[in-house]
Specification:
single chain, Annexin V, domain 1, mainly alpha, UPF0223, BH2638-like_sf, globular, 63% helix, UPF0223 protein ABE28_007190, 90 residues
Length: 90
Amino acid sequence: MDYQYPMDLDWSTDEIVDVIKFFEAVEKAYENKIQKEAFMKAYRRFKEIVPGKADEKKYTDEFESVSTYSAYQVIKKAKGLDEGDWVKMK
């Protein structure tokens, strides 16, 4: 990883850590695989920190521009999977 995760300096340390965990979950979906439940847990926590759609898009687009990994595509795929499935992007 040769990039920085997008974040807001107004977030608490715990919130920054949880947002980074979400972006790491997106990376896992592309680089290996991640269980749907683990990914969705990270996503739900991300949404607690970034509840607005516009802000979510801002941070996920910024992440995609530096990493090439689309959080949107992982979220979309994960939502369509059954419990117990693995999220694996190709």
